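Lay summary. Proteins are chains of building blocks that fold into shapes, and those shapes determine what they do. In this project we predict the shape from the chain. Here is one chain we studied, written as its sequence of building blocks.
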Amino acid sequence: MDKKAKACSRQETISFVKTFMAVFVSIIVSLMVFHLYIYESKKKNALQSLRNLEVHRASLLAETMREHFDWIFADLNYCANRYLAASMAYPQTDMALMSLQEDFLIFVRDKGIYDQLRVIDKGGRERLRVNYNGGAAYSSASENLQNKSQRYYFKECMDLELGQVYVSPVDLNVEHGKVEIPFKPMIRIGRPVFDGQGQKIGMVLLNYYGAHLLKHVRDEFAFPHHVELYDSWQTMLVNSAGYWLVGADKEDEWGFMFADGKDRTFAKRYPVEWQRVNALDGGHILTENGFFAFATVQSPQATFGSSGAPFGKIISFVSAARLQEIIYKERVTFYLLAFVLVTLAATVSSLVAMLAAKKRRHEKELAHSAFTDP
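And here is the predicted shape, written in a compact code that computers can read:
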């Protein structure tokens, strides 16, 4: 009887294991396939959400900067129209300038964003220069006015047609051959002025404090939209040559202004990404370095420098390491839930196997009773 009982017990164990494995494998395969699908969907949605957010943010910031330029162009047009009106009202140049001086002093003082406002005649000579410093505006004496006919901005601006605006590349102000400290980013924005016969009579030029424009980008560092990405999330502004105007590391900025900074460019650090960023007006790219969303800062009415290249590119960057962290979070959730599912499947399989074993024992007992009953 012992051998028979042992054989019976062994058979029951084998039957239990077979039932358990059949049920367990069936349940776990179904659950894990479904769970894997959910995991891949959540991972894809997380990256898609990131992509949509950063592309939108880069485009929005570029649009904000374009609008800022439009405000400056409106100021420039006001000054050009005042110059034209004064020239028509007072054919004598000196009288026209006298009528302009007071208006332009008030204009520069109230705006507070222009380092200089200049009226330059068609021969390249400054006829009026209003300066702004420390909250006060003042005009330069006539003996301090200079001839700018050989300066690049005069030549490039005077080559423009009616309705066009010249915007110089942004650079740092230089005094006595050295970059002024603290840095003073400067953008020269001008347009030619035409008389009633369509002849150029000169130009108006605004020296704009570029720090006001760059502040829009810097503010993005202080108030990230995607808070969980803050540690490795970056918003950058690079010029048309790929030099950083605003970067995560201030040491990288304004490399073109310094002898030892010529290689500090986005183009050198991310050559593959730069090819795409430089070739397109906007978009995104995912590489081994991370995720890059970008948009171009330009204006349809402006000519940016002699090359006609755009003012620059807004680039939103999330590092590859941070992307892996986002995926890792989803993966941890996946493994935790997978453990729960495996445990649940094992529990259900055990119960089913136990019920099946109990049913088999009961059937055997009934069969045995029927066989032995006289």
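What the prediction tells us: The first helix runs from residue 2 to 89.
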